[in-house]
Design brief:
By secondary structure, the protein is mostly helical. It contains 13 helices and four strands.
Length: 246
């Protein structure tokens, strides 16, 4: 599977491997299988793809290649674990590939050179910031979320925003659309003002009446920068020892 001129070693980041949420839900056996697979994908004729002579490997071939003496049914079970967790993707031709290797190979800085990193690991904050800057459209953000190049967990302030944002007509929906706007406009850096406004607005009569009928959709709130509107500060009523239960 190897090709000439490739570096004999790849960088590996233990901390990022251990932090990868997709791998964390897989068994240790499945994780071990994935490690063998990325070694073969690193040495592949087309880096990042598990293939031979430009073709996908059928299950029996994969078992023989990466099974390391394990029973075929065990290998296929672990392979299904990895697939169900979203660890790898598959092309239209059925070729398993490592998204990270493929993405890194496509970076302008790696055109015509060896890629610097290929481990299938969680994105670091620096990498997330690079991805945010590289998104030209919201559609690209949505696709990155879909294929798990980026994760909601990489944007903790958005998670807090979504937790605090009130339901509209009793329903909380369209989380992905709100996340796309949040990520595309890089609102993590403005989260303090956004959360402060949401906390104030959710306690106004306008937002509370008729089961939240007049609460704007979260994506509309973000796209129109509604947190910049003048909002009266919300101050929770202090509990008084003289008050009684109703």
């Amino acid at each position: 599977m190897g090709t000439k001129g490739k570096k004999p070693a790849m960088l590996f980041y233990p901390r990022d491997w251990l932090a990868d949420p997709a791998l964390n839900v897989c068994s240790l056996c499945a994780q071990g299988l994935w490690l063998r697979m990325i070694c073969y994908m690193w040495e592949s004729e087309k880096r990042g793809y598990l293939m031979v002579n430009g073709k996908a490997l059928h299950p029996d071939q994969i078992c023989r290649l990466v099974g390391a003496g394990n029973r075929a049914d065990e290998v296929l079970h672990w392979l299904d674990e990895l697939k169900d967790a979203g660890v790898y993707s598959v092309t239209e031709d059925g070729i398993i590939y490592n998204r990270r290797m493929v993405d890194d190979q496509a970076l302008p800085s790696n055109k015509g050179t060896e890629i610097k990193d290929s481990s299938p690991r969680a994105r670091t904050r620096v990498e997330d910031e690079y991805n945010i800057r590289s998104f030209k459209t919201k559609a690209q953000v949505a696709e990155a979320l879909r294929v798990k190049r980026i994760y909601y967990s990489s944007f903790p302030a958005f998670e807090k925003f979504w937790e605090e944002y009130p339901a509209r007509n009793g329903v909380r929906a369209n989380k992905q659309e709100a996340a796309v706007s949040w990520i595309f406009h890089n609102l993590e850096s403005e989260s303090q003002g956004i959360l402060k406004a949401v906390l104030a607005l959710k306690h106004t009569d306008q937002w509370k009446k008729e089961d939240g009928k007049f609460v704007p959709m979260a994506v509309t709130f973000l796209n129109n920068r509604r947190w910049e509107d003048e909002v009266e500060p919300y101050e929770p009523k202090a509990w008084s020892a003289t008050e009684e239960w109703a």
